[in-house]
Design goal:
Layout lengths: L2 H13 L4 H18 L8 H8 L5 H20 L24 H8 L7 H16 L3 H4 L7 E2 L2 E4 L8 E4 L2 H13 L18 H12 L3 H14 L4 H8 L4 H4 L3 H15 L7
Antiparallel strand pairs: 1-2, 2-3
Length: about 270
């Protein structure tokens, strides 16, 4: 390990007081580069580093390695180990569009749930509730019956401790009540397990995975997608989802764009012209 790298190790360990795993990750990345290029990092060129990084096809891995490199060279510039400050740009990672299910897909899956006992009624009501409310699974698991009043849901344990009110469809409220009515035990929370205790995140995942093949969060995406597809205003959807920034909600606008494109391709007279 070069003297500069040794000084960087001392800096991130003592001065910056970074966590053990973070320190190990930085030093591992940087040591491997020095070993590969067979010279101290401060003596390498940008081209040499970029050529080394080309072997990492995964952009997230590429960017993580690059983060270590840029942090090292920023340190070296401040300590005057190098004369110039330079920083290599990270690779652009395309945003993954949210996965969602259509209403027909959800409706079909709900029809397969046997509701002849409280567990079946719970699973049916839980899936319907998530799709009807757009609630995060963490919010849903904190639900108490008094949080639903006149088909309005009060989400008290929202992310960032922001309370919000969301309207609920009759069918979802009815399903919740039918499940609670047949439950033969008392429980502080709406969603409970076999042990008559609050449902865990793992159990919630197992329910949606069993019937829909997806995580509970996909139902939140499906909720937003249904609203946007139906013509809902983006700011209204933002409020319903509890997003602090409109930028977070804007990811759903791809749905509108795709529908416009599909409409043009299906009906415009120039669609088959070349």
């Amino acid at each position: 390990m070069s003297n500069e790298l040794d000084a960087f190790l001392e800096y991130i360990t003592i001065t910056k007081a970074l966590g053990k795993k973070t320190v190990e990750s930085y030093i591992s990345d940087l040591t491997k580069i020095e070993q590969s290029l067979q010279k101290p990092l401060v003596n390498t060129t940008t081209d040499e580093i970029l050529n080394y990084l080309l072997k990492y096809e995964n952009k997230r891995t590429y960017n993580r390695k690059l983060s270590s490199i840029n942090s090292f060279f920023e340190f070296c510039y401040k300590e005057e180990f190098v004369d110039e400050r330079y920083k290599i740009k990270s690779a652009k990672i395309p945003k993954n569009l949210p996965k969602f299910l259509s209403f027909e897909e959800i409706k079909k899956s709900l029809s397969y749930i046997k509701r002849d006992d409280w567990i079946g009624k719970r699973d049916y009501a839980f899936i319907l509730f998530l799709y009807a409310s757009g609630a995060r699974v963490s919010e849903a698991l904190e639900l108490k019956r008094e949080d639903i009043s006149d088909n309005w849901l009060k989400i008290r344990f929202a992310k960032g401790e922001k309370e919000r009110i969301v309207p609920l469809a009759d069918i979802a409220v009815k399903a919740v009540d039918e499940y609670i009515d047949v439950r033969d035990f008392e429980c502080e929370y709406v969603w409970c397990n076999y042990q008559k205790k609050k449902l865990s995140r793992i159990s919630a995942f197992k329910i949606t995975k069993k019937y829909l093949g997806i995580s509970p969060h996909v139902l939140r995406h499906s909720y937003a997608t249904s609203l946007i597809s139906g013509g809902a205003d983006l700011r209204v959807v933002q409020e319903l989802l509890g997003h602090s920034s409109l930028l977070t909600t804007q990811i759903y606008t791809h749905i509108q764009k795709q529908e416009l494109k599909d409409t043009i391709e299906a009906y415009h007279p120039l669609k088959n012209q070349h």
